Amino acid sequence: MISRPEVEDRIVRVLREQFLKHSEEILQRFNRQITNTVNWYVSTLPYHIKSSEAEDLASEAKIAFVTSLKNWDPRKGELWSYVSLRLKGSMQDYLRRKKMDQISGMYEWINSAAYAYMAFNKEAIIGDQVDDLLHVESALKVLTDKEKEVVETYCKKDKTFKEIGEEIGLSESQVSRIYKEAIIKMRKSAKSSE
């Protein structure tokens, strides 16, 4: 006799197969929600990223939606609740891979500014590099140990929120929330020190 969990697992497999067969129709059904999620996420980005990456982020979100259909388990919640988190994470990962997320962007900007400055002002290099480092270090000082660990692991070790969460015993969404709050703190600290 087949157990109830085995029956449920079979039903979930059949649902996933059907979703994947009709992924275009399901994508159309959720198109408005996907578009709203992408628009919301893009609205939080700096203008230069918004203007150049909006279409790619929309494509990334649609790919993440279809990919999520393969993993969704209806026993653990509604489809959109599950998928919406995946869309946001996918867009963040896309920008992180392109070094355009907010913290990586800050480090990237500091590095490129330092190289450009070094090319023209070799005598003032040491003083200005120290100033830049102190600026970032002072911004990091306003973070708690957990926030600092999340930011540094995400930016310097190139790990995903899920991987970081597994290391420190938190969910992917909790790590994402900690990261976003840390960014806000760092921005406020950087503005107040100017």
TrEMBL record:
One Pfam entry name: Sigma70_r4
Keyword Secreted among record annotations: no
Limits of the RNA polymerase sigma-70 region domain: 50-99, 139-188
GO MF term list: DNA binding; sigma factor activity
Gene Ontology BP term (one): DNA-templated transcription initiation
InterPro entries: RNA_pol_sigma-70_dom (IPR014284), RNA_pol_sigma70 (IPR000943), RNA_pol_sigma70_r2 (IPR007627), RNA_pol_sigma70_r4 (IPR007630), RNA_pol_sigma_r2 (IPR013325), RNA_pol_sigma_r3/r4-like (IPR013324)
Record's keyword terms, sorted: DNA-binding, Sigma factor, Transcription, Transcription regulation
Protein name per the record: Sigma-70 family RNA polymerase sigma factor
Taxonomic source organism: Candidatus Saganbacteria bacterium
Highest classification ranks of the organism: Bacteria, Bacillati, Saganbacteria
